[in-house]
Design goal:
single chain, mainly alpha, two-stranded antiparallel ribbon, globular
């Protein structure tokens, strides 16, 4: 087994042993969706949403939460903590370059976000008959661009925060903003139009997920913004990332 795969396995074990990361990062979005679906009124078609059930409308927002929890809170905090404790500096003296640890962290956290999102889809489908994305290819594209943009922002936080506390503070602001504009705190139909439109362009782009989920073709501009955000934040974090 290669040194990189050993690192991935080690980081995966650490992730699973972290109760907070495991429960909040993997399980909480699906649990919230199941809890909301237990309310009978939320399983009835709503005229305010064009006859769509609230539970169906809200599912993409839980995917926003799945991606945001892992990409904007767990990843930058862990990487900043490694830097603060000198883990990255010590690794530079070994044959295993710190970049491999960074890559392993990305693999583990992206995998966790994928599993969490899949749990939301499967739990909603099995428990309440939430329909699967009607335009799976568009949904896949929107999801990939959105999750890439979120993780690029998370890496930018990890690159700039000197301590885990600083990373946690910055990440919390980004996470709460993402949840607000992504319709997690309040459903998007309850937000002012201007706020909802801003949310279209805040990674991971909940409206593109919602459109493709309902069988519509997502608007091109939000997808382009997700791609540009991923490229800009990813490039910046790679340039300024410090190993100590």
């Amino acid at each position: 087994m290669s040194s990189f795969m050993k690192l991935v396995q080690a980081e995966a074990r650490l992730f699973v042993r972290d109760t907070t990361a495991l429960v909040v990062g993997l399980l909480l979005p699906a649990v919230i969706l199941l809890g909301l679906g237990a309310v009978p009124m939320l399983r009835e078609p709503s005229p305010e949403m064009g006859g769509i059930r609230f539970i169906d409308y809200f599912a993409p927002s839980m995917i926003v939460m799945s991606v945001g929890v892992v990409g904007l809170t767990n990843l930058p905090t862990v990487m900043a903590g490694y830097r603060e404790r000198g883990v990255l500096r010590r690794m530079r003296t070994t044959p295993v370059h710190p970049a491999k640890l960074l890559s392993a962290q990305l693999v583990v956290n992206v995998g966790a976000a994928l599993v969490s999102s899949l749990l939301v889809i499967v739990a909603g489908r099995i428990a309440y008959g939430v329909p699967l994305p009607e335009s799976p290819l568009w949904f896949a594209l929107a999801f990939v661009l959105g999750i890439t943009a979120v993780f690029a922002l998370g890496m930018l936080v990890a690159a700039t925060a000197a301590t885990s506390r600083a990373a946690s503070g910055i990440a919390s602001v980004l996470f709460m903003s993402t949840m607000f504009f992504g319709g997690v705190y309040l459903p998007r139909f309850m937000l002012p139009d201007a706020v909802a439109r801003i949310g279209d362009f805040v990674p991971p782009g909940v409206q593109t997920l919602l459109d493709s989920w309902n069988g519509e073709t997502p608007a091109a501009l939000p997808l382009l913004v997700m791609a540009a955000t991923a490229l800009a934040a990813g490039t910046a974090s790679a340039r300024i990332f410090k190993w100590e």
